Amino acid sequence: GEIWDEEKTIGIAASVVMALNAARHSLSVQAKSTNTGIIYIGYDDTVTTTKWIAELQPGQSYSTDDWKGTIYAIATVAEQKLGFGEH
């Protein structure tokens, strides 16, 4: 199935954005353009502002076609918005 048009609030503690999905073909996340901080994306709950796979300034996105595991995020300031979807 597809999941699109989702949004999650990201704070200063690592949180799950998308759970493991063995049937996932691709995923995409995008930091909302009105954010005031940076969102960091990681593949486990040890994601930090210094250990990450993608650093998203406001409006930037990250996508991958081969990760089926859980996606985590953390932000430099509270109340940052992250849009996400998977197919």
Q: What is the mean pLDDT?
A: 97
SSE run: EEEEEEEE
Global shape:
globular
Biggest sheet, open or closed, and with what strands and sense? 4 strands, antiparallel
CATH architecture designation: Sandwich
SSE blueprint:
Layout: E1 3-10, E2 15-18, E3 27-31, E4 39-42, E5 54-56, E6 61-64, E7 71-75, E8 80-86
Architecture overview:
The protein has a single domain (3-86), classed as Jelly Rolls (Sandwich). By secondary structure, the chain is mainly beta. It is globular and about 35 Å long. It has strands at residues 3-10, 15-18, 27-31, 39-42, 54-56, 61-64, 71-75, 80-86. The mean pLDDT is 97. The strands form two sheets. Strands 1-8-3-6 form a four-stranded antiparallel beta sheet, with no helix packed on it. Strands 2-7-4-5 form a four-stranded antiparallel beta sheet, with no helix packed on it. The protein has no helices and eight strands.
Give descriptors for this structure.
Jelly Rolls; 8 strands; 4-stranded antiparallel sheet; 0% helix; 87 residues; 46% strand; mainly beta
Compact description:
With 87 residues, this protein is mostly beta strands. Helix content is 0%, strand content 46%.
